[in-house]
Amino acid sequence: MEERSPVTLVLTCNNSDIRFSKGSCNSLKVENNIINRVYNGNLFRRNLKRKAVEDEEMSYVPLSSPAVLNSKRPRMIYHGRSFPISRLLEHLDCCTLRSIVETLVDRHPTLFSEVIGLSSLPDLSSVISLLNEMEEQVRSSFPYGGDIRGEYSYNRVRPILQKFMDALLEYMVVFSPPYQKSRNLTLTFLDHISSMLHRLPEWSNPVHNYYKEELYDSVCNAWVSVISTMSKEAFDGINVNEWVAKLIKHNEISGGRFKRVMDTARNELACFFPEKDLNASFSNNNTLGFDFACYYLIKF
């Protein structure tokens, strides 16, 4: 029987076998250290491939596995969560939001003090600017031609006029004690709205002038309250002479409607009145007031 020469098995990179006979190895001068290097290199590559497969398997962990359930990372859970009020409010416009607050206060009057405490009071410049815009709307609502004091003009102007007069009365509360601590600021606001009140229209029908007369009475009450307080407390830098002169002017323009204010001022602040005004008297029955129609025609 023919004797076979021993062979040497070598694994290549693609796992194919190469068989070398001992004689061929000697003839090709393939030494054992070279064969070992080839084998070790193939083994190293196989280990790398096995490690990559294991890493890929470890990278996928089911959500129900204990490793995920016991994780300390926060989870995004939406079941059972309530819709935050902030997300609702950020989509509401100013008018809708104001209507919601007003409705809540009407239904729950105890919330009024909470709303006042959380809100900042309006400043004088912004309020005067708003009132000027509303007064402009009143003037622009008058019809062209016809009787400027008649029923047709009144019906055209009445909705906007009523809204404007309500604003005068309501903002007067904000700029009066206890909401407003500054006497100077209160006097400045009263001076502005008194001038606006003089410019309000007076109608041929006396019934339509009722609300204006009521507004005059409220404004005069505010003046009397401030003057009485000023006489009992320090003037705190208030230029009394200037305000006395303005009161005299308001009384003249209003046709004597400020008579009660003037009487209070003379009693409380007599030393600040000029001598020529001490004996001046105004009839409280004079209802002519300021001629808004003439003012309207001249202005526009």
TrEMBL record:
The keyword Coiled coil does not apply. Its main location: cytoplasm. InterPro entries: Cut8/Sts1_fam, Cut8/Sts1_sf. Gene3D superfamilies: Tethering factor for nuclear proteasome Cut8/Sts1. The keyword Transferase does not apply. Keywords: Cytoplasm, Nucleus, Protein transport, Transport. Binds the proteasome. Involved in ubiquitin-mediated protein degradation. Regulatory factor in the ubiquitin/proteasome pathway that controls the turnover of proteasome substrates. Targets proteasomes to the nucleus and facilitates the degradation of nuclear proteins. This is Tethering factor for nuclear proteasome STS1.
